[in-house]
Amino acid sequence: MTDLAVPQATAAQPRRNGFWSRFRRHKGAVIGGTLLGLIMLAVLLGPTLWPYTAGQINLTDRNLGASLSHPMGTDHLGRDLFASVLKGGRVTVLVGLVAMMLSLLIGTAVGVVAGMVRWLDAPLMRLTDLFLALPVLPLLLVTIMLWRDSLRSVFGAEAGIFLLIVTMIGLTSWMQTARILRAEILALKEREFVTAATALGLRPAGIIRRHILPNVMGLIVVSATLGLANAIVTESALSFLGLGFPPDHPTWGRLLFDGTDYLTLTPARALWPGVLITLTVLSANYLGEGLRDAFDPRGTIKRK
Amino acid sequence: MSVNLRPVGYLTLSICALSSAAMADRGDQGKLSLLYWQAPTLLNPYLASAPKDSEPASLVLEPLARYDENGIMLPWLAEAIPTLENGGIDPDMGSITWTLKQGIKWSDGSDFTAEDVVFTADYCMSADSGCQMTAKFTDVSQVEALDAHTVRISFAKPKPYPYGPFVGLEVPVLQANQFADCIGPDAVNCSAENLSPIGTGPYRITEFKPGDVVSYDINPYYRDATKPGFASVVVKGGGDALGAARAVLETGEFDYAWNLQLDPEVLTKMKAANKGQVVSSFGTAVERLQVNLTNPATDLYDARSTRDGGAHPFLADPRVTKALSLAIDRTALVQIAYGEAGRPTCDVLAAPAIYTSGANDDCLTQDLDRARALLDEAGWTDSDGDGIRDKDGHSMALLYQTSVNPVRQTTQDLLKAWWTEIGVETELRAIAPAVFFGGDQSSPDTFQKFYADLEMFTNFFPGSDPEPYLNNWTCAAIPTPENGWAGMNVPRYCDADYDALIAKLGNTVDLEQRIDISKELNNMLMQAGALIPLVHRGEVSAHATSLQGVRMNVWDSELWNIADWTRAK
Amino acid sequence: MLTYSLRRLAFSVPVLIFISFAIFLLMDMAPNDPTANLPMTIPAETRAQLREALGMDDPLLTRYLLWCKQFFIHEPLHLIAQWTGISISDPDQLRVLSWSSRVPVVDLIADRLPQTLLVVGLSYLLGIAIALPVGIYSAYRQHSWVDHVGTFVSMIGYSVPSFFLGVLLIIVFAVKLSWFPSVYDTTLQVTDFTSLMTQLRQMAMPVTILALYNAAQISRYMRAAMLENLHQDYVRTARAKGASETRVICAHAARNSLLPVVTVIALGAPQVLGGAIVTEQIFKINGIGELLISSIQSGDLPVVQSLTFLFAVLIVLFNLLADIAYGVLNPRIRYD
Questions:
Q1: Which of B265, B431, B436 sits opposite A76 (nearest CB)?
Q2: Phi, psi of A202 (to 5 degrees)
Q3: Which residues does chain A have within 8 Å of residue B400's beta carbon, measured at their own beta carbons?
Q4: Which of A236, A280, B18, B404 has a CA positioned 20 to 30 A from the CA of residue B106?
Q5: What is chain C's percent helix, strand, coil content, to nearest 5?
Q6: What dotted CATH number matches A26-60+72-303?
Q7: B259 pLDDT above the threshold of 80
Q8: Given an 8 Å threshold on Cβ–Cβ distance, is A242 in contact with B265?
Q9: Closest Cα to residue B554, out of B542, B565, B538?
C-alpha cells in the first residue's frame, strides 16, 4: 500500500502540468469556465456597482423596454430588471451549487456503498425507494411548518430559509445519482482490473478512489449538471408555492415564472432569466466535462 | 326591509328586452364552451359550495329565488317573493311562506312539488350530512308543505331577513326522489347522485369527469319551450386564469372564461385581439389588511396572538394604523394591480351602496406627511438613525403575510415601498392558500392563528344583508387556542360597545335603522384601526364578442341567465 | 435470477406497507386542509362538522387501518365484482372516496389515465427514441457539431422549465399561428381521420415539451456512459479482431453503456403514470398529474394517499425490473 503511494507522490508535479495543459486544450471547458466565472463575478460585484437597487419601485417607469439606463427593461412596478437579475443571481447560483453538491454527495455515497458493500445494498436501495415514493410537496409543507420558525430565530429570515431550501432540494433529489452509480459499480466491480486490485489486497477505499470513481466520473458530471439545473428550477417551483424565499427576494427561477405572465407585454422579463439559467447550466456542463477529461488522463491518452 | 324587492315587472321587462334581440328557438344556437380554470369537482352545492362547483351546478339546480345582476331578488321557482306586504312573511317575522310555480318538471319528467323543497331542507339540516350550507338554515325550526305548491319555513325566533333558505345559487332545490337514500351519514356515499343531480334548470348533465369537464344537453322538460338557445354546453376546467383569458380573448377557442384576476395591462393587451370582451361586476368583497391588535411575539409561546398575551407594541395604537393607511396610494394600487376589477375603498362595508358610510374617506388620498406626523405624535421616531422608527428600543418592523397570488404579491411590494417612506420596515411572507386558509391546528401559518403583525385577504357577504358579516368582529368571534382558533375576528378586536350595538342590530327590523347601525359598526371598526380596507373587489370574466345575453352577476351564479344566451349571427 | 426476483418481490410487501404508512403520516402532518378552499362565509361550526363527517377527528391509526381495509380489501373485491359479476360484499360500500368529489378514487384514476398514458407515455417513448441515437453518436463523434448541438438543445430542454416553454409554445403556435389548440379536449373520441388529426394536433405541443425534457436527460447519460466505454480495452480488442465499426459501437460499447440509461428509464417510467404536473396544467390535459397536485392543494387525503401508494408500487416494481435488466445486459452482475 505504502509503496504504491510513493510513485504517485513523485509523479505529482508533471501530472499537475498535464492537468492544466489538458484542461486548456478542452475548448468548451475553457469557455464554460470563463463564462461561469464571469456570471459569478457579475452577481457578486454587480449589485454594488449597478446604480439601481433591486426591488426599488418606480411607478413612473413601468413595463419599459430595453434602454441604456435599463438594459433589460423594467417590470410592472418599474423595478430595474438588470438589478433584480444581478441580485437574484447570487441566491440562484448559491442555491443551485450548494443543493447540487449536497445531492451529489448523498447520491454518490449511497450509490458507491450500495454497489461495493453487498449486505448494505438491499437496505440502501429500499431507502432509495422510500425517498422516491414520498410525495415532495407535502414533505416540503411539513418541513416548513416544523422548522421554519426555529431556523428563522437561529439564522435569521433569509439564511434560515436558505438552509431549509438547500437541504430539502438536496434531500429529495439524490436518488437518481445513487441508483445510476450503484448499477455502474455493480458492473465495474466484476471487471478484471478491479478483481485484480482486490486480489492484490488493495483496501476497498483505495479501490473506490483509484479504480471506481475515475470510471464513473463522467456519470457524476452529468448528474451534477442536471442536478444544478434541477435545483434552480425546483427553487422557483418552491417560491410560487409559497415555500421558498420571501416574495420580495427575486431569484432567476422566480423572475422567469413571474415574467412568463408578461411574455406578450415585456418578453425581456422572461427571456433574460431563462437565458441566464440555461447559460449557467451549459457552462457548468462544459466545465465539468473539461475537468473530468483533465483529471483522468487515461481517456485522453488512449484516444490518441 | 323590502328595499331590494322591486316590482316583479322588472324581471319580465328585462327578459323581454333581451329575447327581442334574437327571437331564438330552443337549441338552435349550437354549442357553448365555458372555461372554469378551477375545475368543478362536485355538482351538489350542499357538499361543495365554492363558486367553481356551485356555478356549473346552477345550470341544472335552481333555487326558489335568485339575485339578478343588480342584487335584486327575483322569483325563480316561486311565483313571487314573499314580503310583509303580500302576506308571504308572517307579521311577527316568525315564518315565511313560498308559493311555487305551477307546471314545473324535473328533467326526468316528474313534477316539482313542495315535497322536494321540504326534503332539501331535511337533507341539509340532518346531522352528519356534511352539508356546507347549514348557516343558511340558521334558526329554521320547521319546513312544511302546506299543499303541493306551498312551503312554509318557520323560525325559532323572529327573523328580520328570512331569505336564507332557497335563495341564491348555493341553496337550490334537490329532487327528493333522487336523493331519498342520501340523507345523513349516507350523503357521502351517493357518488352517482352527487355527480349528476337531476334538476329543473335549462340543462341536464350528460357526462361529468370530476376536476376536468362537464357536458350538458337541454332539459327536455324545461318550462320555456323556446329556451335555452344553445343545444349543448361544455364546462372545461384546468390551467390558470391567464391561460383561460387567452383561450377566450386571443385564440377564441372558448366562449366564456370565469374569474380572471390578472394584471390589467396584460388583460388590455389581450383584448386588443378583438375576439372577446371583459366584463366585471361588484359585490361586497373587500380586500383588506387585518391588523393584529395583540402581540404575535414568538417569546410569548402559547399566549402569542391572543388577548392574554397583551396588546400589540404599536399596532394597538389607532394613530399608527391610521398612518399606515394614509401612506397607501389606493388609486395607484388599483390602477396597477386591479384595473377594472377594483375600486379604492376606506370602508370594510363597501357595498351595497346604501350601507357605505363614507365617513372614513380621508384615506382615499395618499398623505405621507400626515402619516409621518401621526407616527411622530404617537412617539415613534427614528432615534438611532437607521431609517426605521423606534421607541423604547423597539423597532417598528412588521411581518406582513398573505396567500400566494400574483396580485397579492404586487400589493405587498407596493405597500412595503410606501411604508419604507414613512420609516416602517416590512418583512413579507406568502403562504400557500391551502395552508393559509386552512384550519390545521398544528400549522403556524393559518390566517386565524395570525402569527404576524398584518395579513391580507378578501372577505365578503352573500346577498344584501350585512348582519352576519358584522358579527365577525364581536369579542366572541376571536380565534383563541381554547376554541381551536375558530372565529373570524382575526384582528382580535373586542369592544363592549360594538357587541352591544350588534345585539341591537339583531333585534332591529326597520331597514333605515339597520342601515344606520351597520354604518356605525363599520365606523367603529375603522376608527379602532382593526382593519385597513384597501380595494373593493369585483369579479372579472371574459366572453367571446359573438356571445350575447351575458349579464355578469356577482350576487348569484354568473351563469344565472344562461337560458337567454345566444350567438350573434 | 428467478429466486432473486421472487425474494425481492416477497420482500417488497413489507417495504410497501411501511412506505404507505410513511406517506399517511406525512399527509396527516401536512398543514393542507380540505376546508381551506370553501368560501369565507362558511362558519367555523360547519367546517368542524365537515371535518367530522370526513372522519378527520379519528385517531391516526384508525384512519390508516380504515384506508388499508378500503384499499386492499374492498377495492379489489369491487374490481372482481366488476369483472366477473360475482359480488362478495356490497360493492358500493367502503370504497376509497375522494373528499372533494365524493367519487371512488379508482374511478377518478380511470377517468384520468387515458390522456396521461397517451400524452406522457408517448412523449416518454419518443424521448427515449431520440435520446439513444443522439447520445451514442455524440459520444462516438465527441466535439463534433452534432455533439455540440445535442448538448446545447438538451441543456435548454432540461434547464428551461416547462411552465415557460409551454406558454411560449402556446403564444407562438396557438395564438400567433393558430396551428394547435391551447386547451386539450379530453372528451374527443377518435373515430375517423379528421378526429385523429384533431387528436394529433392537440397532443403536439405537450408531447414536444415532455419528449425534449426526457430526451435531454437520457441522452446525457447515454453519452457519458458511452464515452467511458469507448476507451475500454474490450472495444480495442473488438476493433483489433476486425469487427465492423457499427458492430463495435452498437453491440459492444452501446450494450455496456445501457446500465445508467436503463436506470434512468426505470426511474422515469412511474412518472409516466404519475403524469406531468406542470405540462398537464398548462395545456389543461387534466391527467393524473393534475389530479395529484389539485388533491394535494385541496388536502384530499384519500386521493393523495392512494395515488402516491400506487406510484410507490410502480417505483418498487420498475427498480426491480431495472435490477433484472442489469443482469441481462451484463451477465457478470450477480446479486446473491
A1: B265
A2: -65, 140
A3: none
A4: B18
A5: 75, 0, 25
A6: 1.10.3720.10
A7: yes
A8: no
A9: B538
